[in-house]
């Protein structure tokens, strides 16, 4: 019995060994056949043809300024047809550019904040309070105009640092923080200025440097101001900082995903604080532009500029969820708002419907942003 089982085991074992030996490749050619078979495709997936809608979506996603540029082109064509030659008159274009300058400067500051997934409702109050400090330091305290200007710039940076400290240290939402500081800075503005306006003649006699941004010159039959050139220079500097410096990369990373940015070694609190300080400084530069624009120092000027800056940023393609947008898009958005209001005014549309149209633009811009982010 045992001998039969032993014989059966030997027989089966011998067959298995012979099969395994026969299944193994015995030459280099056999090895190459096995290797080529293993290198073949394991699985195949059907390549779906990209539709026109997907191509358009991908184009707008990779080019954030494409959508606002397209809207700007449509705006120019529409009002050229509706209004006619008056829309492209040099005087009219000069007026639009002067109106857009202040919103453009504040829009640059607002863009930095929104890129970090925040929002700053106090940019207008910072600008006005900084302008009042420039004027009062020069007129009431007798400071040299250059020192008064420097004092106003420092005041703007300090107010930005206050916003940034409350956001980073106390971990408060930016919307709530800047809503509170908006009221605080506005109250300080009324208290410090005593609700009095410093006349243009007095500034011209004592501190003409504060009105420097209002100096105009002719360019291609249109009159531009030094404030407009300052806005373009500021735009170029911030654009370079965002796209070609580590700080700019950290700003985008912090706004896109703070948790991932921290894991990558980015100190997000420092980045946020620096963004608010720079934004406050830019708002103070906007105060200098404001004085040159109106010629005087008024505690009531530019109070609603915070909403206009947010409008320019949103229409310019910067995402309210952070991590996506550009400074150039903000300037295009400011131009769209300025041209819309100017074109509707030339067409005889009531101010009420002008604001209605701008509100519709904001809703459409946010809807497009949501579609692009999908």
Quick rundown:
This protein has 374 residues and is mainly α. The chain contains 16 helices and two strands. Strands 1-2 form a two-stranded antiparallel ribbon.
Corresponding CATH architecture = Orthogonal Bundle
Spatial ordering of strands, largest sheet:
1-2
Biggest sheet record: 2 strands, antiparallel
Number of structural units classed as domains:
1
* Overall CATH class: Mainly Alpha
Q: Which structural class should the secondary elements be placed in?
A: mainly alpha
- Overall 3D form: globular
Count the strands? 2
| Strand content range | under 5%
- Which spans of ≥5 residues are poorly predicted at pLDDT below 50? 15-25
CATH topology: ABC transporter involved in vitamin B12 uptake, BtuC
Mean pLDDT: 83
Helix content: over 70%
| C-alpha Rg (nearest Å) | 32 Å
Q: What is the tally of helical segments?
A: 16
CA(first)-CA(last) distance: 76 Å
Structure description:
- The chain has 374 residues and is an all-alpha fold.
- The protein has one domain (71-373): ABC transporter involved in vitamin B12 uptake, BtuC (Orthogonal Bundle).
- It is 73% helix and 2% strand.
- It contains 16 helices and 2 strands.
- The chain has a two-stranded antiparallel sheet with strand order 1-2.
- Strand 1 (216-219) and strand 2 form a beta hairpin.
- Helix 4 (66-83) packs parallel to helix 15, helix 6 (123-139) packs parallel to helix 8 and helix 14 crosses helix 15 (327-346).
- The longest helix has 27 residues, at 268-294.
- The chain is globular.
- The model is unreliable at 15-25 (pLDDT under 50).
């Amino acid at each position: 019995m045992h001998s039969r089982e032993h014989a059966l085991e030997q027989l089966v074992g011998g067959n298995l060994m012979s099969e395994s030996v026969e299944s193994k490749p015995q030459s280099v050619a056999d090895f190459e056949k096995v290797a080529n078979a293993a290198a073949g495709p394991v699985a195949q997936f059907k390549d779906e043809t990209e539709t026109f809608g997907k191509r358009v979506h991908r184009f707008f996603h990779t080019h954030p300024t494409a959508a606002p540029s397209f809207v700007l082109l449509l705006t120019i064509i529409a009002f050229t047809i509706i209004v006619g030659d008056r829309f492209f008159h040099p005087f009219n274009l000069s007026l639009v550019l002067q109106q857009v300058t202040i919103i453009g400067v504040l829009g640059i500051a607002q863009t930095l904040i929104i890129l970090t997934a925040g929002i700053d409702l106090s940019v207008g109050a910072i600008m006005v309070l900084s302008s009042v400090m420039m004027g009062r330091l020069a007129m009431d305290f007798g400071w040299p105009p250059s020192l008064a200007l420097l004092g106003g710039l420092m005041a703007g940076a300090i107010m930005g640092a206050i916003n940034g400290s409350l956001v980073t240290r106390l971990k408060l939402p930016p919307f709530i923080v800047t809503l509170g500081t908006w009221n605080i800075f506005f109250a300080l503005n009324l208290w410090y200025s005593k609700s009095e306006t410093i006349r243009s003649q007095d500034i011209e006699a004592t501190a003409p440097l504060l009105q420097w941004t209002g100096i105009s010159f002719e360019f291609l039959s249109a009159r531009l101001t030094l404030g407009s050139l300052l806005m373009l220079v500021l735009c170029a500097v911030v654009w370079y900082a965002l796209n070609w410096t580590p700080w700019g990369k950290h700003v985008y990373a912090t706004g896109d995903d703070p948790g991932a940015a921290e894991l990558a070694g980015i100190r997000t609190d420092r980045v946020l604080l620096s963004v608010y300080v720079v934004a406050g400084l830019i708002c103070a530069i906007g105060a200098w532009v404001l004085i040159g624009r109106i010629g005087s120092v008024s505690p009531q000027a530019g109070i609603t500029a915070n909403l206009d800056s947010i409008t320019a940023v949103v229409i310019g393609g910067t995402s309210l969820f952070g991590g996506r947008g550009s400074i150039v898009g903000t300037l295009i958005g400011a131009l769209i708002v300025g041209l819309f209001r100017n074109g509707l005014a030339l067409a005889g549309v009531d101010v009420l419907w002008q604001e209605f149209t701008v509100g519709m633009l904001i809703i459409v811009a946010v809807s497009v942003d949501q579609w692009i982010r999908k």
